[in-house]
Amino acid sequence: MGFVISLLLIGVGAILTWAVTDNSDSINLDVVGVVLMVVGLISFVLTLFFWESWWGAGAVRRTRYVEGGDAYARRSGYGPRRRGYVVEEEEAPAAPPPGPPPP
Question: Where are the chain's structural domains?
Answer without folding.
Answer: 3-60
